[in-house]
Amino acid sequence: MPPGYPPPLRVGLTGAVGAGKSSVARRLAALGARVIDADVLAREATADPGVLARIAAEVGADLVVDGRLDRAATAAKVFADPAARRALEAIVHPWVRARAAAAEGAARAEVPPPAVVVHDVPLLFENGLDAGMDATVVVAAPFAVRAERLAARSGLSEAAVRARDAAQLDSAEKARRATFVIDNGGAEEDLDAAVERLWVRLLALSRADAGR
Question: pTM for this structure?
């Protein structure tokens, strides 16, 4: 950390698939947070030849085609086969964590550093990463809303959404563990207002941490 500046507030952001955590992350970034997106880093990981070679060897040679990860085939396999999912995560997650730590380190070295660093992580609670955060935010939306969004956005069936839900901690348990819960089951303007209220509270936490 540069001398004279408090460290950023570390915030873990998560939510069930289709809940809209990326929408919340974009709004927080626009308000001034530094967002480190684990999904983006995971896509970068699967462009790494070393990572791809391990996926082919340990998860399935058919998942890597012409030097690229077949994302549809990979998703179909890992959401149907828990052992394959664990093998994939064991390859990708350490890569992602190392890059996320480097990105946060770079943010902390800035003058001034950001007041808030948000780690946007789908499996925040499942992988115990919430333990290292100063606060956690869960984005929530009813299953029917999420399924409709994912059908429109990605063509996922209701069964596919349920399979993805089954691979994560129950949404109600995530909400119970969270410092803050953002309801994203309604209109865009409602989400805007909720994120603005959240930002005020995160800045207040950041100042409180700096004062200790």
Answer: 0.91
